[in-house]
Design brief:
Blueprint: E1 16-25, E2 28-36, E3 54-60, E4 67-75, E5 82-84, E6 90-94, E7 97-106, E8 111-118, E9 126-127, E10 141-144, E11 150-154, E12 187-190, E13 203-204, E14 207-208, E15 226-233, E16 236-242, E17 249-254, E18 261-268, E19 278-283, E20 286-293, E21 305-311
């Protein structure tokens, strides 16, 4: 167990963790991170340094409680279709079942998204024998709306291969998107009732400015890169994500879970390390941002640690920007 005394401390220190997806299940906070391995790897734009093999589930009775590691919940060797790189996962509860959604490279080196199930939020999870048909890229985030309809948001540039899926087929060497062209958006698909397949073909989400114009590929302060997350606040849908190259968590707001979304601003300024990845969850009457940085490892890109802090809204529903190393 790790007892937290301030927001700049990692949830756990005995392993490296990243990409936290936080949920309230059974009255407790459950966090589903990726698990960085403790070894030296050379970094590149393809993300080969992120060679994670398994998932651990973390939990806390509340924000002021100790964090418990429930141990290994799923390993790549137990997933028939997967070959390597168990990147950022997410979890959901429906049909009296807990679902773990995760990306991995298949045996053709293409990222797909799989699903595993468990009767317990702590796992272990039993994987389906095949990936979700029609799935691709990385960073699945699943949102179950108040009407019980469930949506998966996903996609990441560069090593996440999203550029390779600009058509309905995988293209190994796609045409480059020019800076003055519309940026690629994340994908969304409604899930079937059993949460194991897409109800429909994934579609691209529109993220626009206040005038309704699409964000451009060269607008690296605002355009989508990876790590989507969806939450709902006072009837509005909040799509938040990482800008990648400019290392921020930003957000856009819409009236529909499938968009379009109007860009609003920055939630989290850059942290130590190249990647930034987050989730947003309500516990009691407060909201929290879960994120990671590389402070525990002294800045190693592939050895990150999960942290969290309180998230606050302004009266107009916008989110107050968080400076992770202040206060």
């Amino acid at each position: 167990m790790t007892k937290l005394t301030n927001r700049n401390e990692p949830l756990v220190t005995h392993i490296y963790t990243a990409d936290p997806s936080a949920h309230v299940f059974e009255g407790k906070l459950y966090i589903y991170p990726s698990h960085d391995l403790d070894h030296v790897k050379e970094s590149n734009d393809n993300g080969d340094q992120y060679d994670m093999e398994d998932y651990h589930v973390l939990s806390m009775d509340g924000p002021d409680s100790a964090c418990v590691d429930h141990g290994q919940a799923l390993h790549v060797k137990d997933v028939p279709w997967a070959s390597k790189q168990m990147w950022a996962p997410d979890a959901a509860f429906k049909n009296d079942t807990y679902y773990l959604f995760f990306p991995a490279r298949d045996h053709d080196d293409i990222f797909r998204i799989g699903v595993a199930t468990s009767p317990s939020p702590a796992g272990p999870f039993e994987p389906q024998p095949e990936y979700i048909p029609g799935s691709f890229s990385i960073d699945p985030a699943v949102f179950v709306d108040e009407d019980d309809r469930a949506y998966m948001y996903f996609g990441g540039l560069w090593g996440g291969q999203l550029e390779k899926w600009q058509t309905d087929a995988y293209v190994a060497e796609p045409a480059e998107i020019e800076p003055d062209q519309p940026a690629l958006g994340p994908r969304v698909a409604e899930l079937s009732e059993d949460m194991l397949t897409f109800r429909e073909r994934p579609v691209e989400i529109a993220i626009v400015d206040e005038q309704g114009n699409a964000l451009l590929a060269g607008d690296e302060e605002r355009r989508y890169f990876e790590g989507p997350w969806m939450h709902k606040y006072k009837g509005k849908y909040y799509l938040s994500y990482s800008t990648g190259t400019t290392h921020k968590i930003v957000y856009a707001i819409g009236d529909n879970p499938q968009g379009p979304f109007v860009f609003q601003g920055t939630i989290l300024t850059p942290v130590l390390g190249w990647t930034t990845h987050h989730s947003i969850v309500q516990f009691g009457d407060k909201w929290y941002l879960f994120y990671h940085d590389s402070s525990l490892s002294g800045g190693a890109d592939n050895k990150r640690s999960v942290k969290f802090t309180e998230l606050e809204y302004n009266e107009d529903g916008t989110i107050r920007t968080i400076e992770p190393y202040e206060g």
